[in-house]
Design brief:
Elements (H helix, E strand, L loop, with lengths): L11 H15 L8 H14 L5 H10 L1 H12 L10 H18 L5 E7 L5 H13 L5 E8 L2 H9 L1 E3 L8 H7 E3 L7 E4 L1 H4 L2 E5 L12 E6 L8 H13 L1 E9 L12 E5 L2 E4 L2
Helix pairs in contact: 2-4, 3-4, 5-6
């Protein structure tokens, strides 16, 4: 997009200021090719506040962080997800992780899972479906689902999606776990309340404190590490390791790797890691 096509004046200095704030808060690296993306995502904030250009928005953000910062982070965070995305992970959970956890936790009969970077909720709801279909009903299942973006968390907590989000799912899954809306809501579906009962949605900045006391049986952190530099990836992997017992699993995104990082994990499958020490 050329300068004369833009509604608001937007310079490299504006972009550098905004991506520096984003990085300092979230640890997310913002490369040069996100220049236009930042404009398109934030121009509505400039318009909403009645500001003349991005320089004024930068100043507004600097002067009013308590009012604007969450909206700023929400706007520039990328959220792309779907139900049962990267299907091999869910097959591995069903065929390998669940049998292992049922054996390991047979006395306490609990399963604890973390979906880190849960976006609009499709991932934790998919995990919940797999668990409810393959774990005895007398087990205590809890899933923590966290994200930096408060807007996507609100969507996730409602469990309401447009019908196109479930179009590619098998008919038996749609019939069992989704309720179709009626009237003006006929283009929407709602997840079964049994799934919602398992999941706690919380805002969490992975770069900040983790108010988490208990260990997890497995952790999904997919398409999150890709945004961080090498040192931050290593730190996050080490922190995840502290919340997993030896033999427990960490599942990451299809374009991510812990290769050449100092971690407690071994690669045992396609983007599937096991804690070994």
């Amino acid at each position: 997009m050329s300068d004369n096509q833009r509604e608001f004046l937007y310079t490299k200095d504006d972009f550098d200021f905004l991506r520096k704030i984003s990085n300092e808060h979230s640890g997310i690296l913002v490369p040069d090719d996100k220049f236009d993306m930042f404009y398109s995502r934030l121009s509505k904030r400039v318009r909403m506040h009645g500001l003349a250009n991005f320089k004024e928005y930068c100043q507004y953000l600097k002067n009013n962080p308590e009012l604007e910062f969450t909206e700023f982070i929400n706007a520039v965070t990328t959220n792309l997800t779907s139900f049962f995305r990267e299907k091999h992970h869910f097959e591995y959970v069903k065929n390998t992780i669940i049998p292992d956890v049922l054996k390991r936790n047979s006395t306490k009969k609990t399963i604890r899972v973390w979906s880190a970077g849960c976006s609009t909720g499709e991932e934790p709801y998919s995990i919940a479906m797999i668990l409810l279909e393959n774990v005895p009903s007398n087990w205590d299942i809890k899933i923590l689902a966290t994200d930096l973006d408060t807007n996507v968390l609100q969507t996730a907590a409602t469990g309401i999606y447009t019908s196109d989000r479930v179009e590619g799912l098998p008919k038996e899954i749609k019939n069992k776990w989704f309720k179709k809306g009626t009237g003006i809501n006929s283009v929407k579906v709602k997840v079964d309340s049994r799934l919602q009962a398992l999941i706690q949605f919380k805002q969490l900045n992975l770069m900040g404190d983790w108010p988490i006391k208990n260990n997890f049986d497995f952790i999904f952190c997919r398409n999150v590490l890709i945004y961080f530099d090498r040192d931050t990836k290593e730190l996050l992997a080490q922190r995840y390791g502290q919340l997993l017992s030896i033999g427990s699993h960490l599942l990451i995104g299809h374009s991510e790797s812990l290769n050449q990082l100092d971690t407690c994990f071994d690669l045992i499958g396609n983007t599937i890691y096991k804690k070994i020490k």
